[in-house]
Specification:
The chain is mainly alpha-helical and about 425 residues long. It contains 17 helices and no strands.
Length: about 425
C-alpha cells in the first residue's frame, strides 16, 4: 500500500494551514509536558520526601508501582474511549482527574496516602499518549504525521527537563508539598486552553480519521506482542533514570537536593533530542515499504548498542561521566519509543491509533510496575551494579524478542504488510 494511503485519509478539504494546523498537536505537547511535570515531581523531591516521611526505598518502589499499575490499566481504557467517543470530552475528563490527583500528593503523610494519590494520577495520565497519537492521526495529513508524533510525544521529555528547573526552587523555598500544588495550577491552566482548542472541527469530528486501511490489533497476533515487548522493555531505562537517578546521585555521589535539581534536566534532554533524531532517521532511511522492516531492524540494533554504556556507570564516581551516561541512556530509549510506534502504525489501522498508543504505554507501565520494587530493594541494599545491569539488559531483550518474532512472521507471510 502506498505511503499516501497508509493510516488515514482526510475525507474533507483541510480547514487549517501553516501554524494553525499544528495547534492541536502543540496542545498535546503541552499536555504531555504537564503530565511529566506531575509524575516527575515525586521523583525529583524523593530524597527530601523519603527523609521526612521515613519511607524506605522499597516502599518508594511500590508507590511508583501503584502509579504504573493504574497507568497500565488507564492507557488502553482511555485509548478505546478516545477512539470511540472523541477527543474533547475524553481529554478534558482525564486531565481534570489527574490534576486533582496530583494536588492530593500535598496532603499525603505516609505510604498509603502516596500510593492512593499515585494510583489516581496514573489512571488519569493514561490518556496522555493515546490522546497525543489520536490527535496527530486525526488532524494532520499523512505527510506530517511522523513529525507530529515526535512533537506530541516530546512533551514528556521536555517536562522531565523543566521539572528540576521549576520545581526545585519551589520545594526549597516553600517545601515539597508546594511543588504538588504548583502542578495543579498548571493543569487548570491547560484545561482553559483546551476549552478553546477542543471546539475546532478537526479535533471534534472523529470521522476525519477516514479509512481503516491496515489490520486490527489482536492479542492472537504475534506482531502485537512484539510491539508491546519492544516498547515496554526498550523504554524501561527511562523509568529507571526518572525514578532512580535522584536517589543514586544523593546516596552514592553525595549530591544535595539543590544540586540534584541543577543536574536532572540533563538526562531528559537526551530523551528530547532522541525523539527527533530517531524519528527523522527512520523517515530518512525508509526508501519504501519494501525496506521498512529492514530499516527499523538496523535502527533498533543501533539504539540497543547506544543503551549498553548504562551498565558501566557504577564503576565511575565522576559526576560528569555519570550524567553523560544517563543522557545517553535516555537518548537510546527514545529510539525504542519512536521506532516501536512507527512499526505499530505501519501494521495497524489508524482507526485504532488511540488503542495502539494505549497498549504500548500500558505495556511499558506494566514493566515499570513489576521492576520498580526490585530496583527499590536493590537501592536499599546498595547493590547499584546489579540495578544498572538489570536496567541495561531490558532493551537488549526487547530488541531480540521483536527481531525474532518478526523474522518468523516474515518467513510465514512473505510479502506481508511491512516485510
Amino acid at each position: 500500500m502506498p505511503d499516501a494511503d497508509r493510516g488515514a485519509v482526510v475525507s474533507e478539504p483541510a480547514r487549517y494551514h501553516g501554524l494553525r494546523l499544528w495547534i492541536p498537536t502543540a496542545s498535546m505537547l503541552l499536555v504531555s509536558l504537564i503530565s511529566y511535570i506531575d509524575r516527575n515531581t515525586l521523583a525529583l523531591l524523593a530524597p527530601t520526601i523519603l527523609a521526612e516521611t521515613r519511607l524506605t526505598g522499597e516502599q518508594y518502589g511500590f508507590i511508583i508501582s501503584a502509579f504504573s499499575v493504574a497507568y497500565m490499566v488507564g492507557n488502553p481504557v482511555w485509548g478505546r474511549w478516545l477512539d470511540r467517543f472523541g477527543l474533547p470530552l475524553g481529554v478534558t475528563v482525564a486531565v481534570a482527574l489527574w490534576t486533582l490527583a496530583s494536588v492530593s500528593h500535598a496532603f499525603a503523610a505516609g505510604f498509603l496516602g502516596f500510593a492512593l494519590a499515585r494510583g489516581s494520577l496514573g489512571f488519569g495520565e493514561g490518556a496522555t499518549f493515546p490522546g497525543g497519537l489520536r490527535t496527530v492521526m486525526q488532524t494532520l495529513p499523512p505527510s506530517k504525521r511522523s513529525r507530529g508524533i515526535a512533537v506530541a510525544y516530546s512533551g514528556g521529555s521536555l517536562g522531565a527537563i523543566v521539572t528540576p528547573i521549576i520545581v526545585t526552587p519551589i520545594g526549597l523555598w516553600w517545601g515539597w508539598r508546594a511543588g504538588f500544588v504548583f502542578t495543579g495550577l498548571i493543569g487548570v491552566a491547560w484545561l482553559a486552553l483546551w476549552l478553546w482548542v477542543g471546539r475546532r472541527p478537526d479535533v471534534r469530528e472523529r470521522r476525519r480519521v477516514g479509512t481503516t486501511a491496515g489490520d486490527t490489533p489482536r492479542f492472537t497476533d504475534p506482531r502485537l506482542w512484539s510491539f508491546l515487548l519492544l516498547y515496554a522493555l526498550g523504554a524501561l531505562p527511562i523509568a529507571f533514570v526518572i525514578y532512580g537517578a535522584a536517589i543514586y546521585l544523593n546516596r552514592v555521589l553525595g549530591a544535595s537536593q539543590a544540586l540534584i535539581g541543577k543536574l536532572l534536566w540533563i538526562p531528559p534532554l537526551g530523551w528530547e533530542i532522541g525523539y527527533f533524531f530517531w524519528g527523522w532517521l527512520a523517515d530518512k532511511l525508509s526508501s519504501g515499504r519494501a525496506t521498512r522492516l529492514a530499516v527499523l531492524r538496523r535502527l533498533l540494533a543501533a539504539a540497543t548498542a547506544a543503551s549498553l554504556p548504562l551498565a558501566l556507570l557504577p564503576a565511575s564516581r565522576n559526576l560528569e561521566v555519570v550524567m553523560a551516561g544517563l543522557f545517553a541512556a535516555m537518548f537510546a530509549a527514545a529510539g525504542f519509543l519512536i521506532l516501536s510506534v512507527a512499526y505499530a502504525t505501519d501494521v495497524y489501522s489508524a482507526a485504532h491509533s488511540g488503542l495502539i498508543a494505549g497498549l504500548g504505554a500500558g505495556a511499558w507501565s506494566a514493566s515499570v510496575a513489576c521492576i520498580m520494587p526490585v530496583f527499590g530493594r536493590l537501592f536499599d541494599l546498595a547493590r547499584w551494579q546489579t540495578a544498572f545491569l538489570l536496567a541495561t539488559a531490558c532493551p537488549v531483550a526487547g530488541c531480540l524478542i521483536w527481531s525474532t518474532i518478526n523474522r518468523g512472521v516474515r518467513a510465514r507471510t512473505a510479502g506481508g504488510t511491512i516485510s
